[in-house]
């Protein structure tokens, strides 16, 4: 059989191409490729070389459209015993190729060529082409002969034209030779026979039959030469005659050959006009060809020679002609029939060619697995020859089957897929690739066959002496099918890997990885001292709106902006070491030594550090791989580079991810990591990594130790934070901010110390003082703190309550020492997180808080004592009782009476230490401009200390200053105008929002002036937080305490009927009278002039009915009734007056006391037509209910007349 046969093969002229002398292989390939461009020579192009010596037997020669077709055979082919049967099998021309610089003696070259031509007895034309001759060789060539053609040195186009001319000359010479042969073919001396003809002596009848057959065979042969000469019409005429004669003589073999020739003539005649009618005709005729070849089978010749090869060739020719997807079923039937015929073939080379052709046709149809099956049959035939060249051929053929069997080497994978792995894919591409990988894994279930294929490749590579292919096959076999291989087989493959590596040069790389299995474990989080923040030069706070770097799935510092990129981003810095965690697995039964493993980075801006790992059998290990970025730019890490079993391979993370996905879905044999006892790991993708220029690096530490700072609740302590620049560039900008819980526990930070140290050069250090104050613990915190404190040592409770210092800092915009830094690349900044490890222990606990108040009537003639400052440094209470009461008792300017207010705190000490409590108050002084303003430089009063022993309780009194608002304004009330019945009973409601705001403001004012400090031992001191206590104490009576009365009443004496000398403001005058009245008492039996002052504390006019009463010590009215003891002049009841907003009016009267003693004056008023504000303040439920205001009592001491 012959390879690459088709129906058109019958019209091709075989030309042997022989290298003559020394011809370099590369040049020989170039010359042969030049020849292949002239496989078809048009008849119209050879007319100038053609000479008609006599009438041509090709009477229907198509000179305008016909052509001669050549088939160049490098090295020629041995003569075939079937040359008479099919003339196209003959070598009809010989072309020699000579390279003149390598063969200077042209005479010797010509002799060698003539000697080589003698091996081809059927050759009709011989030419020797000598390329690149020298000048002397050109002179010699003119004398040597016509068979030698010199191609002078010239450009490629010129040589192509020269070669085309020579091929036209050869075509013309062959055409004339064909004419000669056809003219003498019918002579009686022409003998045409095949190996099927009997070699024994013929009887007379057989001689007659042989003579008849000779004529039919001659006509068939003339038809062959007509085809070779490019005249299909003449060929068809001769084939028709041959068919008739062959049928008459029963020469079925030649009849089939003539039928084949007629089909070829039909196709050549209708070149380019293929249709359904033509296909049907070819199908019908070739069915007859196959049938007649089968008829020519002679049993007695079956052991020696058989026409089965021609039957199979005809089957393959028809299959090749019909080979397309629409006719796949018919083609498969033909190929199946041909494959069954292989059993009848005697010669192994015929089987080889048959399987090759079947595999090629299946591949053309797209049936890759069938093609792979027959390719394996070819490889088996090669392996049976037991020689190195056959083993190389088997190895190459098996390599073609690996794609169909899904055991393809990465080296033969398309470059596009490799590029995708390196550059990364979009989300849609990832889904498509994932689907394809899962399908590939599903198809890989036919593992036994795949193992056989890889074992055959390994065997052929060992025989062929190709250690790299053998290593690759053993690696794929061990990596993919280790669960199906026994421990002994695994050791054998490991030995094969080692033996192959010994024959390879050091540093050899292979595209196919062996062991271990490697998957990405994680990217370690950036330490809090190395966070990188994008830098916005357009803002002063350049870090605002940027989240720190790192592979965080969620970061609390981000602002929730959407991220269109499905991958995380990771930023590395030039010159700073980075780490990546990977997990290795060895699921085999032998010790595995990895000579080196390091990160595989395809970009040139990263230096990876190799490590050596030893893996015991069936074990896994997580290791850290590190490296240093060297320049700015993106970094891609597709996997790891491993030096194991003497060869360097690249292990891609994506391949292992697909493997684990298949294992999870049950599509592959097993999970190598779970076989080694490793736990389930969430799939980790490689983030987008970019490298930024060199940055400064601040390292923090707490001066005095990095342990927890243990504080009691409210304790104040100073600590120091040390910042050192461990980077290679200076810190030029720095800003400190607070984060986390309990930020108010940081009282002060020395910002200026940090600012003054800038720029902080590499290696420099700055110490920043920080003042801390322990916060109050909640119920759960107190329990945890109690548990942590129970014992000799204190365990820090990691509850996340400690505040954190955030230091955003950055280096210079450009670094002159780094050539990678350009103006377009803005180096980012950094964020240093300094967690203050504060452990707060439970201190004094509040048990109860109460507001204590007492109203003491004012006395005529008495004045309030001025407050005396107390030296807080005195260890004992050095202030007398009188001065203490002077500081505690205050005149209420809105009531006109003495007020005494305390905040009583009941404190419990559950700790094991003793606390000393001290209270200090900043007193409020009045000024002429505003009697209610607070003097910023007010004196501070101290009070005696209170000691609370451990496991004891005590009460601490905190004096409170009056803190009523100056004006009763409608802004503190909101009308409720709901018309529904549910709210009809309540016409007015207090504005809760404004109340809380004003109350909180007042509380803050109190806290700013009242300090409750404690001290325990020598070094532990703090301050109690009284805010919650005041809120709890004032919560029930907030309106009465916070808001003033609508009216303020006051009395004063008028001596000799004169007004007081002070004519200041109303407020000042009223206070003046109360605070500077003479100390002498009122004398009985004397008319005492007085006046009552009524102040309007609202912003609206108030119309009222005023009345004045005087009562004795028994509470009896001593002005009215039969037993009245006080006479009066003026009006004391039913006084109708109007008071303007925020002003006061005065009403004068006189009293005449008959009996000495203690008397009490009181003023009251009924407000006519009250507005909504007054009703809200009085908490009235009915709009008709009268509003009654009563003033405070006013004491008068009446003495007898001496």
Automatic annotation (TrEMBL):
GO terms for cellular component: trans-Golgi network. Residues 9-199 form the Trs120/TRAPPC9 N-terminal domain. Keywords: Golgi apparatus. Residues 330-499 form the Trs120/TRAPPC9 TPR region domain. Residues 1070-1198 form the Trs120/TRAPPC9 fourth Ig-like domain. It is found in: Golgi apparatus. Residues 546-646 form the Trs120/TRAPPC9 first Ig-like domain. Residues 882-1042 form the Trs120/TRAPPC9 third Ig-like domain. This is Trafficking protein particle complex II-specific subunit 120 homolog. It comes from Rhamnella rubrinervis.
């Amino acid at each position: 059989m012959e390879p690459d046969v088709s129906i058109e093969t019958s019209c091709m002229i075989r030309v042997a191409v022989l290298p003559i002398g020394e011809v370099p292989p590369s040049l020989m390939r170039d010359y042969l490729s030049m020849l292949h461009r002239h496989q078809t020579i048009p008849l119209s192009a050879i007319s100038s070389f053609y000479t008609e010596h006599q009438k041509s037997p090709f009477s229907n020669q198509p000179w305008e459209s016909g052509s001669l077709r050549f088939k160049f055979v490098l090295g020629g082919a041995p003569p075939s015993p079937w040359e008479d049967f099919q003339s196209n099998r003959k070598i009809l021309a010989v072309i020699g190729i000579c390279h003149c610089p390598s063969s200077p003696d042209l005479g010797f070259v010509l002799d060698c060529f003539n000697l080589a031509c003698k091996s081809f007895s059927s050759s009709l034309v011989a030419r020797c082409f000598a390329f690149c001759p020298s000048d002397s060789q050109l002179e010699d060539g003119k004398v040597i002969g016509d068979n030698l053609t010199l191609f002078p040195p010239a450009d490629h186009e010129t040589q192509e034209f020269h070669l085309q001319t020579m091929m036209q000359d050869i075509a013309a010479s062959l055409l004339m030779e064909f004419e000669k042969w056809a003219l003498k073919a019918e002579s009686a001396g022409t003998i045409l026979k095949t190996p099927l003809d009997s070699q024994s002596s013929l009887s007379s009848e057989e001689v007659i039959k042989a003579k008849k057959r000779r004529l039919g065979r001659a006509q068939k042969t003339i038809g062959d030469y007509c085809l070779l000469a490019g005249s299909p019409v003449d060929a068809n005429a001769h084939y028709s005659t041959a068919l008739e004669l062959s049928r008459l003589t029963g020469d079925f073999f030649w009849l089939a050959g003539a039928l084949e020739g007629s089909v070829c003539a039909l196709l050549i005649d209708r070149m380019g006009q293929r249709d359904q009618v033509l296909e049907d005709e070819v199908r019908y005729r070739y069915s007859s060809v196959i049938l007649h070849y089968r008829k020519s089978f002679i049993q007695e010749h079956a052991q020696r020679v058989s026409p089965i090869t021609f039957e199979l060739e005809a089957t393959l020719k028809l299959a090749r002609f019909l080979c397309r997807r629409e006719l796949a079923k018919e083609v498969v039937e033909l190929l199946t029939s041909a494959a069954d015929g292989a059993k009848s073939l005697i010669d192994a080379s015929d089987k080889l060619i048959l399987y090759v052709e079947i595999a090629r046709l299946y591949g053309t149809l797209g049936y890759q697995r069938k093609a792979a099956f027959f390719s394996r049959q070819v490889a088996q035939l090669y392996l049976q020859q037991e020689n190195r060249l056959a083993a190389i051929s088997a190895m190459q053929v098996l390599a073609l089957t690996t794609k169909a069997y899904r055991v393809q080497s990465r080296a033969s994978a398309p470059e596009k897929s490799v590029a995708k792995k390196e550059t990364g894919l979009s989300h849609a591409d990832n889904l498509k690739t994932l689907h394809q990988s899962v399908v590939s894994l599903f198809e890989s279930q036919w593992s036994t066959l795949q193992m056989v294929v890889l074992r055959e490749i390994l065997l052929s590579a060992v025989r062929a002496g190709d250690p790299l292919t053998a290593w690759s096959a053993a690696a794929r076999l061990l990596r993919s099918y280790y669960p199906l291989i026994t421990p002994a087989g695994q050791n054998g493959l490991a030995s094969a890997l080692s033996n192959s590596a010994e024959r390879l040069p050091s540093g050899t790389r292979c595209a196919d990885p062996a062991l271990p299995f490697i998957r990405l474990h994680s990217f370690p989080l950036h330490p809090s001292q190395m966070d990188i923040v994008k830098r916005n030069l357009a803002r002063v706070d350049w870090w605002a709106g940027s989240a720190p770097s790192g592979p965080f799935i969620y970061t609390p510092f981000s602002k929730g902006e959407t991220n269109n990129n499905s991958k995380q981003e990771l930023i590395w810095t030039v010159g700073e070491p980075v780490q990546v965690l990977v997990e290795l697995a060895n699921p085999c039964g032998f010790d595995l030594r990895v000579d080196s493993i390091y990160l595989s980075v395809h970009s040139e801006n990263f230096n990876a550090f190799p490590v050596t790992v030893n893996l015991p059998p069936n074990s896994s290990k997580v290791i850290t791989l590190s490296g240093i970025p060297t320049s700015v730019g993106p970094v891609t890490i597709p996997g790891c580079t491993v030096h194991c079993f003497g060869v360097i391979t690249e292990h891609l993370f994506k391949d292992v991810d697909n493997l684990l996905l298949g294992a999870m879905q049950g599509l592959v044999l097993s999970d190598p990591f779970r076989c080694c006892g490793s736990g389930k790991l969430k799939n980790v993708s490689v983030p987008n990594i970019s490298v930024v220029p060199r940055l400064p690096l601040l390292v923090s530490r707490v001066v005095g130790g990095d342990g927890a700072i243990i504080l009691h609740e409210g304790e104040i302590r100073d600590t120091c934070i040390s910042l050192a620049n461990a980077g290679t560039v200076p810190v030029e900008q720095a800003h400190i901010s607070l984060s986390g819980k309990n930020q108010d526990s940081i009282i002060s930070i020395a910002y200026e110390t940090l600012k003054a140290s800038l720029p902080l050069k590499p290696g420099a250090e700055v110490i920043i003082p920080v003042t801390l104050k322990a916060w109050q613990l909640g119920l759960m915190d107190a329990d945890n703190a109690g548990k942590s404190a129970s014992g000799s040592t204190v365990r820090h409770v990691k509850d996340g309550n400690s505040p954190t210092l955030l230091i955003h800092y950055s280096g210079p915009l450009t670094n002159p020492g780094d050539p990678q830094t350009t103006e377009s690349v803005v180096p980012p900044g950094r964020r240093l997180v300094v967690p203050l490890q504060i452990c707060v222990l439970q201190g004094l606990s509040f048990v109860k808080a109460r507001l204590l108040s007492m109203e003491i009537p004012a006395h005529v003639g008495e004045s309030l004592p001025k407050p005396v400052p107390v030296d807080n440094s005195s260890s004992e209470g050095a202030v007398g009782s009188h001065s203490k009461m002077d500081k505690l008792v205050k005149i209420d300017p809105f009531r006109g009476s003495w007020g005494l207010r305390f905040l009583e705190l009941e404190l419990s000490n559950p700790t094991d230490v003793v606390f000393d409590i001290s209270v200090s108050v900043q007193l409020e002084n009045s000024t002429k401009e505003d009697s209610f303003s607070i003097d910023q430089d007010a004196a501070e009063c101290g009070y005696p200390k209170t000691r609370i022993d451990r496991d004891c309780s005590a009460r601490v009194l905190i004096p409170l200053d009056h803190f009523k608002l100056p004006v009763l304004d409608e802004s503190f009330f909101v009308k409720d105008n709901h018309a529904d019945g549910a709210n009809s009973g309540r016409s007015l409601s207090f504005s809760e929002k404004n109340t809380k705001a004003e109350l909180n403001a007042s509380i803050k004012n109190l806290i700013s002036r009242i300090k409750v400090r404690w001290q325990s031992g020598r070094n532990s001191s703090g301050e109690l937080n009284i805010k919650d206590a005041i809120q709890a104490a004032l919560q029930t009576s907030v309106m009465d305490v916070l808001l003033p009365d609508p009216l303020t009443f006051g009395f004063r004496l008028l001596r000799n009927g004169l007004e007081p000398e002070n004519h200041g403001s109303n407020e000042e005058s009223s206070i003046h009278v109360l605070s500077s009245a003479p100390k002498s008492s009122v004398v009985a039996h004397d008319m005492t002039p007085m006046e009552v002052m009524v102040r309007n504390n609202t912003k609206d006019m108030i119309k009222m009915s005023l009345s004045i009463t005087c009562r004795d010590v028994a509470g009896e009215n001593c002005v009215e009734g039969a037993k009245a003891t006080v006479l009066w002049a003026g009006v004391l009841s039913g006084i109708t007056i109007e008071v303007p907003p925020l002003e006061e009016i005065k009403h004068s009267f006189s009293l005449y006391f008959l009996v000495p003693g203690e008397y009490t004056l009181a003023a009251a008023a009924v407000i006519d037509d009250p507005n909504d504000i007054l009703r809200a303040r009085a908490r009235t439920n009915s709009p008709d209910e009268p509003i009654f205001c009563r003033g405070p009592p006013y004491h008068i001491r009446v003495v007898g007349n001496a």
